[in-house]
UniProtKB/TrEMBL annotation:
Active site per the UniProt annotation: H160, E274
Recorded superkingdom: Bacteria
Keyword vocabulary terms for this entry: Carbohydrate metabolism, Isomerase
Family (UniProt): Belongs to the aldose epimerase family.
Pfam families to which the protein is assigned, alphabetical: Aldose_epim (PF01263)
Pathway: Carbohydrate metabolism; hexose metabolism
GO biological process: galactose catabolic process via UDP-galactose, Leloir pathway; glucose metabolic process
GO terms, molecular function: aldose 1-epimerase activity; carbohydrate binding
Coiled-coil regions listed in the entry: none
Protein name, entry field: Galactose mutarotase
């Protein structure tokens, strides 16, 4: 399994895998040592059996689609139901299970692509996806996700790294989190949105003022600005030495506290901050959603900025 290691003048190192186009390792120099920022398997072959989407690109459409039902124009498609009766992260063999091909690679960037056939997991296609990772000298990481299909189809991939800025195998409970979100999308028992937008005020999801995460279980979509110029989230290490600042042009952010992480990791050892469209957006006309076609290719941007105290 091929790996691509990106570096910058700040001494940061990011390792990307062909499998799932995922992030295996991201470390930065801190004092006289290095600090790992994400969870990853030491042996790349372990990603072939991973069920936690560890570091991977997920899609074609990130998160859940209720009943796996997708209506495009007058045509209804049945997507693979891989989480009970619902569709999750593009199906069991979504983008996270694909062997991507490197189109270009230099010391600080890599672009990978893969094509999903017409009917893959139920999606119309074929659709070509690409992801560009660019590691910058200011310790920021720019990610560009693109899709182009020969017919109208749904697209909305994202990245699924688990962050732990402590550099230790410990829960993320003592991390501090700030979220630039006034509302969230409540869900039913199957984690499918009800269609409402509710205020975070007086709820466990109110991180408008930076606070310690604690033991609260998070697996929710927050409504963010979808503006690259506005920070959506800031995660701070327990020792206050590192901050991760995230921005994206996606209108939603799934915050997942990793409660179901399995061995060799422990529950809550990492937190996911996943820019996305709202879950089940195609089935809620008032939820923002975008499609891709030959005339209208899809593109989304994510920026991670690492800051040191």
């Amino acid at each position: 399994m091929q790996q691509f290691t990106l570096t910058n003048l700040s001494g940061d190192r990011l390792t990307i895998l062909e499998h799932g186009a995922g992030m295996q390792s991201w470390s930065v120099p801190l004092g006289n040592s290095r600090r790992e920022l994400i969870l990853g398997y030491a042996n790349p072959q372990q990603y072939l059996q991973d069920n936690s989407y560890l570091g991977a690109v997920v899609g074609p459409y990130a998160n859940r689609i209720g009943g796996g039902l997708l209506l495009l124009g007058q045509q209804q498609y049945q997507l693979q139901q891989n989480e009970g009766r619902h569709h999750l992260h593009g199906g069991a063999n979504g983008l996270h299970r694909q062997q991507w091909q490197a189109l270009q690679h230099n010391s600080s960037s890599v672009k990978l692509c893969c094509t999903l056939a017409d009917g893959h997991s139920g999606y119309p296609g074929p659709t070509e996806f690409s992801v560009l990772y660019q590691l910058n000298a200011d310790s920021s990481l720019d990610v560009t996700l693109q899709a182009r299909s020969v017919q109208l189809t749904l697209a909305g991939p994202t990245l699924h790294p688990y962050f732990n800025l402590s550099g230790k195998a410990e829960p993320i409970n003592q991390h501090q989190l700030w979220l630039n979100a006034e509302h969230y999308t409540p869900t039913d028992s199957g984690k499918i949105p009800t269609g409402q937008l509710l205020p975070v005020e007086d709820s466990a999801l109110d991180f408008r003022h930076c606070k310690t995460i604690g033991t609260v279980q998070l697996d929710h979509n927050l409504v963010v600005s979808g503006n690259m110029q506005q920070t959506a989230a800031i995660l701070t290490s327990p020792d206050q030495q590192l901050r991760l600042r995230l921005s994206s042009d996606y209108p939603g952010l799934q915050v997942y506290s990793g409660d179901y992480l399995a061995a060799p990791f422990s529950p809550r050892q990492g937190i996911c901050l996943e820019p996305q469209f709202y879950p089940d957006a195609p089935n809620h006309s008032h939820f923002p959603c975008r499609y891709t076609s030959p005339e209208q290719p899809f593109v989304a941007h994510i920026r991670y900025q690492v800051e040191k105290s």
